[in-house]
């Protein structure tokens, strides 16, 4: 009887511990599903929010990769789409507003990710605007406080590297490739598949060039980037076809805020660019 009683006591303690764990898991699940209140600061935008949406969604000519590829590709180690809020939050990019403009952003891209239509051939690409790196957010007591023109905590190099790995996995893993083809709604002919593989190779090579132009000596990390060095490499080395112009980026700095930029005589950290509006 004592043995049985002791066993029941142990079982009771065990059941109490299990109930505690279950309660904690439920509590965490509930907390994770709480919809935070979004707060937009008074930063001089128009009352309708049109200017804010244009800051988020107006293309500036950036063409990272084909638009439909970005919408269809899965994350490297998952069946989830890479463009999902959950995936991109890992790299510090913010999801679209709860009341985002469906006309300017019909596919609900994250803040600062936009569709760019090439003026020459009409091809569609996904690219960045200034808002991707210059929109910050503070999460405090259930509130998401957005700060436009501020500093994001994004990891651009980590994101591009993950993007490259995701396309490599799409090309090399049959299940991922099949799902990718299905999302693109491409007829599965041999000619189409061969052409798609060539396009994937081009995207992977392009992302590799971005990484080689951007990766610093030492990891730049979250919220830091040698943007000036990487842009210089892209233009002076890659675009001009001058390999000797390459200079390894080695000065990652915190992403600066944009306030009062138009009032400065010179912009960029190096001060080499005269501001025409002054």
Brief descriptors of the model:
disordered N terminus, 278 residues, single chain, 3-stranded antiparallel beta sheet, 9 helices, alpha+beta, 3-stranded mixed beta sheet
- The strands making up the biggest β-sheet line up spatially as 1-6-5
Report the β-strand fraction as a percent range.
5-15%
Q: Tell me the overall shape.
A: globular
Number of helical stretches of at least 4 residues: 9
H/E series: HEHEHHEEHEEHHHEHEEE
Radius of gyration: 24 Å
Structural class: alpha+beta
Unreliable runs = 1-34
The chain-level mean pLDDT equals 81
Number of strands: 10
Helix content percent band:
40-55%
| Major sheet characteristics | 3 strands, mixed
């Amino acid at each position: 009887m004592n043995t049985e009683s002791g066993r029941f006591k142990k079982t009771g303690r065990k059941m109490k511990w299990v109930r505690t764990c279950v309660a904690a898991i439920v509590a965490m699940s509930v907390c994770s599903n709480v919809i935070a209140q979004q707060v937009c600061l008074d930063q001089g935008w128009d009352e309708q929010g049109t200017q804010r949406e244009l800051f988020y969604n107006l293309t500036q000519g950036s063409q990272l990769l084909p638009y439909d590829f970005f919408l269809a590709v899965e994350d490297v180690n998952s069946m989830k789409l890479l463009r999902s809020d959950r995936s991109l939050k890992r790299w510090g990019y913010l999801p679209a507003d709860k009341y985002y403009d469906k006309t300017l952003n019909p596919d609900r891209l994250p803040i600062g990710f936009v569709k760019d239509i090439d003026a020459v051939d009409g091809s569609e690409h996904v690219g960045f605007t200034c808002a991707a790196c210059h929109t910050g957010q503070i999460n405090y007591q259930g509130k998401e406080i957005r700060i436009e023109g501020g500093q994001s905590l994004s990891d651009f190099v980590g994101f591009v590297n993950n993007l490259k790995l995701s396309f490599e996995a799409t090309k090399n893993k049959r299940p991922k490739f099949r799902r990718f083809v299905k999302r693109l709604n491409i007829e599965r002919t041999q000619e189409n598949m061969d052409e798609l593989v060539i396009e994937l190779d081009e995207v992977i090579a392009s992302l590799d060039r971005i990484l080689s132009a951007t990766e610093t000596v030492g990891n730049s990390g979250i919220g830091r980037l040698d943007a000036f060095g990487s842009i210089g490499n892209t233009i002076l080395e890659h675009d001009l076809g001058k390999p000797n112009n390459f200079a390894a980026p080695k000065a990652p700095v915190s992403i600066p805020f944009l306030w009062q930029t138009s009032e400065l005589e010179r912009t960029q950290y190096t001060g080499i660019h005269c501001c025409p509006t002054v």
